Amino acid sequence: MTFAYRHEAERVAALALPWEKLEGKTLLISGGTGLIGRFLLDVVRCRNRAGSNIRVVSLSRRPRPSEENIVYLEQDVSKPIAYDGAADYVLHLASNTHPKQYGEDPVGTITTNIFGCYHLLEKARACGAQRFLLASSVEIYGDGDGTPMDESYCGAIDCNTARSGYNESKRLSESLCQSYRAQYGINCVTVRLSRCFGYDEKQDSKALAQFLARAVAGEDIVLKSEGKQRYSYCYVADAAAAILFVLLCGKDGEAYNVADDSEGKTLGDYARLIASFAGRRVIFDIPKMQDNTVSKANYAELDCTKLKSLGWKPLYTVSEGLRATYEKYKNA
Q1: What is the Cβ-side half-sphere exposure of residue 98, based on CA atoms within 13 angstroms?
Q2: Quick check: 1 pLDDT over 50?
Q3: N or C: which end of the chain has fewer CB within 10 A?
């Protein structure tokens, strides 16, 4: 039994949630070896140590050896689901989530999101699953208008670029869930995740992950912009907790924004904070040509009032999460 986040997972597993809904149930999860999926499995391990007897079937292109109550199966979710067993809850977390992946595999990014959602919805329908949860993204909003965006904000996205494939396929996946609700009566909920971070074995090309990697290596942090962007972020523990709140307490058909509370910091502020962990500095190297694999949004802060109405609240500030992530990488 391997815990990536024992202490944080124990905190989430102790939250006041209706855990009895999961006792003796089977969760089918795509992306169970990803950043958030691994954390959720750590929470399941904690609950099972207390006797919850939750079974997980994790679908991934990079499976791990199975263990008690957790079965890892090799599966590309853009293909029909090979697992033919039962599932009480289906969670679609698998996705290309890194800018480098968008640039190198824009088609695969779209097919994993859309076909993966379709195949898992079909599985939920065949199993008579109690609930389907889709992990969507802040990217569906595009560039904000300077105020925190709630779930009714429709956003603005230039669809005529390869980079928009991630945004648009997440939007379409949400629409697909609503269509399955309307046509087949599938119980569906959606979490719109902000920019999530945490210790991850896989190489991550998102900005905070790059900053952390350079700090851990004892190097200065390089900013490719002026660093004035203002985004919402979420430490992996709070993202996983939010998913559980929505899965167990959310209203059928609703979407919920997920982000830690704003600290009023810009991207540049967080770069300087991370550099300070290693006693380094931030240097600017702004390219003349814009990188088409990165988000063009300058403002993307989320209003999480709706999620908090379910009883969720952040366990960590963004700064605390960044410090914890830095320490995990340093001690790995």
Answers
A1: 17
A2: no
A3: C
- Quickly state the pLDDT bin for 246 (edges 50, 70, 90): very high
Q: If you count them, how many residues does the chain have? A: 332
Query: What is the arithmetic mean of pLDDT over 197-202?
Result: 87
The Cβ of residue 219 has, within 10 Å, a number of other Cβ atoms equal to: 13
278 CA to centre of own chain: 27
CATH number at residue 51: 3.40.50.720
Over the stretch 227-239, which tens digit does the pLDDT of each residue have?
899 999 999 999 9
Dist CA 276 CA 266 (whole Å):
15
Domain tally for the chain?
A: 1
Domain that holds residue 239: 6-198+233-262+303-316
190 in Cβ contact with 177 (< 8 Å):
yes
Residues 265/158, Cβ–Cβ less than 8 Å: no
Cβ 314 vs Cβ 260: under 8 Å:
yes
C-alpha torsion angle, residues 328, 197, 45, 9 (rounded to 10): 70
